[in-house]
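Key result, reporting period 2: structure in, sequence out.
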């Protein structure tokens, strides 16, 4: 291993199933290489407060199966100022921490980039259920979250069918429609509303429901991403326009919790170990990614310039598959 002696790990922003698997892999890989590991409690807020705990092989035993994050997470407005990251970099240096592993989404990586600009050595691991990090095809938590949403929609379909009603189901995704898109392909729906396609035609949606009803369809599902929102008002407008009883269900934070899937555990663990290997090998300020079937890494500045858009082919087939 290199001269890296002590590393720290934090989780920031929204929690995602699989974060604990990444933490376990970070700790056990580092300890195996002779490093000391500290956990930063409550993300960047805890870092600014110097909230460090010692992590050992035993302290991370049996955590991979748990949702959430054992070191907690929090939003940190102070980290969006010029002074916040500078203060945090000094705290890391004073604590003798040679490298920091940040598990989080785009906002967390912006904080990591600011830390790097102030002299800290940071490795980022993509952890967000939204799948909206440009440099990677996989983010920790998406697989579990989308499976939770698919299962919930299956359940809602049962009652929607029984009452011959229309159901508006709102899934998470403030700025990204990946959960909604995958749910439409997996579950089927009369329509999908996502931020990437925000100029939807509501009358076209209503006409589609009425057309499907004439063809004999007795229940209807609309999947609405959080970034579009207003599901309750949309339900009222659809009911008034169609005469079909329409209910709105917001799935909300159930998508963040729960037992992580095997994929989220394995991929998160691989990324956690990879982060330690990067630090041990002398790498500085990188973001880990899963790209084109391989685990890889990018310079943090390059990674944050990458953009991700909805796969147009998947969007097209979601519409074709949904046709009744």
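The corresponding designed sequence is given below.
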């Amino acid at each position: 291993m290199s001269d890296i002696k002590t590393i720290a790990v934090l989780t920031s922003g929204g929690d995602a199933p699989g974060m604990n698997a990444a933490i376990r892999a970070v700790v056990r890989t580092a300890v195996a290489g002779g490093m000391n590991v500290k956990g930063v409690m409550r993300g960047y807020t805890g870092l600014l407060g110097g909230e460090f705990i010692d992590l050992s092989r035993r302290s991370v035993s049996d955590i991979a199966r748990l949702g959430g994050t054992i070191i907690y997470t929090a939003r940190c407005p102070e980290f969006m100022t010029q002074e916040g990251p500078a203060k945090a970099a000094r705290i890391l240096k004073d604590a003798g921490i040679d490298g920091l592993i940040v598990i989080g989404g785009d906002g967390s990586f912006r904080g990591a980039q600011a830390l790097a600009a102030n002299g800290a050595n940071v490795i980022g691991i993509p952890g967000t259920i939204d799948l909206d990090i440009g440099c990677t095809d996989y983010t920790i938590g998406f697989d579990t979250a989308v499976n939770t949403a698919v299962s919930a929609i299956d359940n809602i379909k049962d009652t929607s069918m029984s009452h011959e009603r229309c159901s508006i189901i709102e899934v998470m995704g403030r700025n990204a429609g990946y959960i909604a898109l995958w749910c439409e392909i997996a579950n089927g729906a009369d329509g999908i509303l996502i931020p990437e396609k925000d100029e939807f035609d509501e009358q076209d949606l209503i006409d589609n429901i009425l057309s499907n009803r004439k063809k004999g369809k007795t229940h209807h599902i609309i999947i609405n991403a959080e970034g579009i929102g207003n599901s309750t008002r949309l339900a009222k407008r659809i009911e008034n326009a169609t005469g079909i009883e329409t209910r709105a269900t917001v799935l909300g934070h159930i998508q963040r919790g729960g037992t992580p899937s095997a994929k989220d555990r394995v991929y998160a663990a691989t990324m956690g170990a990879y982060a330690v290997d990067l630090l041990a090998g002398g790498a500085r300020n990188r973001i880990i990614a899963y790209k084109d079937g391989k685990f890889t890494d990018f310079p943090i500045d390059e990674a944050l310039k990458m953009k991700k858009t909805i796969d147009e082919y998947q969007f097209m087939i979601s519409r074709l598959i949904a046709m009744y």
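The mean pLDDT is 96. Residues 67 and 257 are 5 Å apart (CA to CA). This case is discussed further under Risks and Mitigation.
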